[in-house]
Each structure stands twice: as structure tokens, then as C-alpha cells.
Amino acid sequence: MICYFSGTGNTKWAATQLAEATGDRLIYIPEHIGKPFVYEFQEGERIGFCFPVHGWRPPRIVRQFISQLQLNADEHYTYALCTAGDTIGETIDIFEQDLACKGIKLDAAFSLIMPESYVGLPFMDVDNSKNEKKKCSQAADDLSIYTQDILNRRKVKALPHIGRWPKINSRLIGEIFVKKLITDKPFHVDSAKCIKCGICAKVCPVHNIEGGTAHEPQWKRNGTCLVCFACYHHCPRHAIEYGRQTKHKGQYFFNHDRCAHSKPNI
Ligand SMILES: Cc1cc2nc3c(=O)[nH]c(=O)nc-3n(C[C@H](O)[C@H](O)[C@H](O)COP(=O)(O)O)c2cc1C
Ligand code: SF4
Ligand code: SF4
User: Fold this and answer.
1) One digit per residue, pLDDT tens: the chain, 266 residues?
2) Rg (CA), the chain
3) 142 and 265 in contact (C-beta within 8 Å)?
4) What is the rounded distance in angstroms from the CA atom of residue 102 to the CA atom of residue 135?
5) Does ligand 2 come within 6 angstroms of the Cβ of 221?
6) pLDDT in the model for residue 74
7) Are the beta carbons of 35 and 12 closer than 8 angstroms?
8) Fewer CB under 10 Å: which end of the chain, C or N?
């Protein structure tokens, strides 16, 4: 099985490509939150976890899912693949510790650099289209190699994107990031631009938006928002803003046509 979470589609693409190549079943993490996760393994079945990096850590929903696992994973090859815009810090170490708490050992881990989705701070924006294409193309090449490793059950850590100061980024800044910046309080809609299409509510992976056709979005503000920015990026009118941080920022979500070369050569 391949358990995955994705906000703007990068990780979904990677997980789907892996599922096609391995024949392993996809499990969408948000559908399994709030209850113990029990699973009947086939003999020799692999366990994969795919998720984006959020604040140099695994996203909160992924960590919550791990805490719910009730698996007897002893003889199963287990791997993690994270996608990030730039650097991953100690994301995989944190994930490995979470798994260890459930008695699961990580055999392999991989990182992929993909287009940037975080736009919530003044110096952060999406990639320009040239960088976007370049990242997608490189990600497809890297994923081809990782797929072979996974098919051959290699025990490797292919993490070329740890970056500088991983401990400070993941343990210190990551902690502040989660506490202060994972909140939907700054989200608001520009009524003059909103066409009440309902897309934002539809794409939210955790159903944190009241809305739908003929309604403007209303964020629930109850602590479930992951700040994945799927709502912001998918709005066809750029009507969603995150405080004043997104005023002149771009939008991005994974699109097979824009990333035409992103088919791994497997
Ligand atoms: C809340 C949030 C935090 C992020 N933090 C990081 C980060 O620490 N390092 C990084 O390189 N990219 C970071 N990113 C970018 C994403 O990891 C990257 O764009 C990822 O591929 C998005 O995957 P998705 O499309 O499956 O959601 C962040 C994105 C979001 C939304
Ligand atoms: S996606 Fe944009 S235009 Fe459509 S309802 Fe949401 S805010 Fe309004
Ligand atoms: S409200 Fe927007 S940012 Fe928050 S989880 Fe839903 S789609 Fe992601």
C-alpha cells in the first residue's frame, strides 16, 4: 500500500506514478483520520508513505495518521518519499521517530524537489514557469531511479535535499512554524472577485471550508486547516488571500499538461 497526502497535487502525482509502477494500492490519508488504521497485508506487500514537507516537518495530518496505525509491519519493506520546494531538513528523521513509536522500521527514504506551493510568508512565492518545468522534469528523472530502488526493495536513504542547518530548521523554526503559521485565521475572500464556483471548498482535503456552488467560502477556523494552500491556488479568480501575504503572489497546482515531461521513464 502507498499512504499519501497531497495539498496541491505534487505528492499525489508521485504517489500515483509509484502505484502504477509497483501495482501497490493507494490509501488517501485524509480519508482515514479519527479512527485506528488497521490493514490486512498481502504476503511481501510494501508499505509506502508519500507526503509534502511542511515547515521542514511531515504535515500534521500525516503525523496524526501514523499515531493511529495498528499494523503488524515486521516483514514488510517500508519506505517514505517526501516532496518539497527546496529543502527537507530533518523531515525524514522526525517521520522515522514517529514510525518507531509504532514499532515500524523505515527501510528506505527519498526526497523529490517539486514546484513550490508555500506563499504564506513575505519572501515566499511560487516558481516561475521555467523553474516549474525544470523541477517537474528533474522530479520525473529522480522518481524513475527511486521507483527502481523500491521495486528492488533496496535499503537506501536518497535524501539529497536536506539543506543547511537541518536541526535548526526542523526542530526550532519548524516548531514555531507549526504553532504560529498553521492557522486559517488569515484566509479571507475578495467578494468583488469571487464567482461562487465552490472550487475552493471542493479541493480542501480536510473539508475545512463551508461553501459550494452559489456560496462564498467560509473557513471553519476550528484548528483543522493544514495551510496546504490548495484553496488559494485552485481559485480561478485569485479571490482568496492569506492576510496580506498573497496580494501579488502567483498560483500553482500540479497539472499534467504544464508538466508535460513529468512521466517517469520506468
Ligand atoms: C505549509 C507549507 C509548508 C512548506 N514547507 C516547506 C519546507 O519547509 N521546505 C520546502 O522545501 N518546501 C516547503 N513547502 C513546499 C511543499 O513542500 C512543496 O511544494 C510540495 O511539493 C507540495 O506538495 P503537494 O503539492 O503534494 O501538496 C511547504 C508548503 C506548504 C504548503
Ligand atoms: S474558488 Fe474562488 S471564485 Fe470559486 S468560490 Fe472559492 S473563492 Fe470564490
Ligand atoms: S482551508 Fe485551504 S489551506 Fe486549509 S486545509 Fe483546506 S485547502 Fe488547505
Assistant:
1) 999 999 999 999 999 999 999 999 999 999 999 999 999 898 999 999 999 999 999 999 999 999 999 988 888 999 999 999 999 999 999 999 999 999 999 999 999 999 999 999 999 999 999 999 999 999 999 999 999 999 999 999 988 899 999 999 999 999 999 999 999 999 999 999 999 999 999 999 999 999 989 999 999 999 999 999 999 999 999 999 999 999 999 999 998 776 654 444 44
2) 18
3) no
4) 34
5) no
6) 80
7) no
8) C
Count CB-CB contacts under 10 A for residue 170: 26
What 3-state class would DSSP assign to 208? coil
Distance CA 245, CA 243 (A): 6
Q: pTM value?
A: 0.96
Whether 227 lines ligand 2, by a CB cut-off of 6 Å, is no
Listed residue (90, 82, 98) closest to 171, CA to CA: 90
Residue of 5, 86, 118 to mutate, ligand 1, most atoms within 8 A of C-beta: 118
Q: Which of 189, 190, 204, 241 to mutate to test the pocket of ligand 2 (most atoms within 8 A of CB)?
A: 189
The Å distance, Cα 51 to ligand 1 centre, comes to 9
Q: Which three cell numbers stand for residue 9?
A: 497535487
Give, for ligand 3, the residue of 208, 216, 224 to mutate: max count of ligand atoms closer than 8 Å to Cβ.
208
Is the CB of 186 within 6 Å of ligand 2?
no
Which amino acid makes up residue 44?
G
Residue 5 Cα distances to 80, 138, 261, angstroms? 12, 21, 23
